[in-house]
Here is the input.
Amino acid sequence: MEINLEQKFAEQYGVNPHAVYFTPGRVNLIGEHIDYNGGLVMPCAITLGTWLAISPNADGRHRLKSLNFEEQITVDGNLKHDKNGSLWVNYPIGIINELLQDGKQIPGMDFLFYGNIPIGSGLSSSASIEIATAFALNDYLNLGYDKLALVKMAKRVENDFIGLNSGIMDQFAVAFGEKDKAIVLDCETLKYKMVDVDLGNYVLAIINTNKPRELADSKYNERVAECQTALSLLNEEITLHNLCELTADKFALHSHLITDETILNRATHVIKENDRVHLAAKALNNGDLEEFGRLMYASHQSLKTLYEVSGKELDAVVDFCSTYGHVIGARMTGAGFGGCAIAILEKGFEEDFAKHLTDYYVDKIGYAAAIYISEIGNGAMKH
Ligand code: ADP
Ligand code: MG
Here is the structure.
């Protein structure tokens, strides 16, 4: 951590924190816009994340402060609270509400957050702050939840309190991640396997397009609705709970039910992307990174043309990667419409890549992207 959170906590609240916790952000290696369609995704935790220092206080109220934001909020301890506009405190407050709703008593606590995940860039700083809060309170107060219960709680906060109809992938990844492993997660059954990611002579580069975010949440909810439309049309002939129950072959037998081209494209992306995750897991197990990289490019192409969630910024990054000699795979990651891309970059070319990508990107887009080299790290933990 590049700042001394204990010291900042003491400056803020006049006492030392009793405990400090860390929860990472995540990237999804492949399997995009799949989680809410009940298919397979392949996220991993990264080494950027959110730290949370906590201490109980004497006045029975919660005091919440983040070093990333101006507003500090004080709320009554054992009362549920309404959503407060789009303030950052909604995320921890949402978790506290869930705990109260579940009958837990929470003594007044002081909270200090700090995150180094670029916020609102698709690396799941929101899941990170949710799980950081839930994990810390559960551990410190011995509330007795298992990790999966915390993941489901954080998803409810994101869906019902914040209002984003996202699937379970983000919360799952930042809670369950393990160093140098990807999680192959079935979003319908929540069964998962950890797969070794041996990058060998390559590193994981994360490229933030720095595109100002607009309309991303409403476009996201629109895609969720389009998939539901496809599902109900298919259900006229077969019984399906979600699109990812279909293989591409089986889908071809029933796709005539979808006459709207846009809806057909959305469903086609989902079903083929789900197949690609199976292939990508096989490629990793076989140590075939080149095949993995090809699947990443194919995923991006599908997200760009069929699912229409990319954009000129993400496309510029991936176009550059595909012509730069030392990248074997690249794609947008997360919901899209801006946010981040990832690339599998040959070791030793980090600086050269950053320089040439920056020149290319500034020329095309007019401002710079930010480039991080990340390791695959561990999930939520006591620091
Ligand atoms: P993403 O999850 O892609 O980073 P979101 O819009 O889903 O973007 O979540 C970002 C929001 O999460 C921020 O606007 C803020 O409200 C909250 N948040 C994330 N990290 C922090 C932090 N370190 N401190 C306070 N709030 C945070
Ligand atoms: Mg988010």
